[in-house]
Model the fold of this input.
Amino acid sequence: AQTVTQSQPEMSVQEAETVTLSCTYDTSESNYYLFWYKQPPSRQMILVIRQEAYKQQNATENRFSVNFQKAAKSFSLKISDSQLGDTAMYFCAFIVIQGAQKLVFGQGTRLTINP
Amino acid sequence: DADVTQTPRNRITKTGKRIMLECSQTKGHDRMYWYRQDPGLGLRLIYYSFDVKDINKGEISDGYSVSRQAQAKFSLSLESAIPNQTALYFCATSDFYGTEAFFGQGTRLTVV
Done:
């Protein structure tokens, strides 16, 4: 079975601090994409960052970066210089490229950035 | 206009009623999905479709049915709604390679 686990239901940091959200996943496939999605109170699902499993280099998008450890099946999200607008639910997800492609989500982490 | 549109945005219905949630997309994608979001459980897959003639059950399909009326339209039905189907429902689409999923704005469904 393909699963995603986010072990931190809630996190809270002060504005401008750096925060890391954890994610582990399980799959027997070798070719897949990993994602972090942000869901603000508006409930819109927003893609934050994507990582191709075949790439060793960690993806970065401005203040957002990932630490992808394929052997450990770990995919953490680091937010640098956190801002009030980063307050949201964050979901880790992955999709296998071949075969029946189903986007599988973790349970989510509620992140609060305090002023 | 949004690429993926869900209607209604919010709905309150009574136990035992039939309800349909609709999804339409302008992305031109063949792959469409229905997810349910509950606190602490993340998004769970209800049904997915890879083209008009291909419908597949997800992990929590019991109590739900779907219809793929066209490439752009994918509807989710609750034949006889029950309170534990109260949740936030999302429709999503993706391209063939699954490089990104595009989500609708969600439907907040409350069954009383």
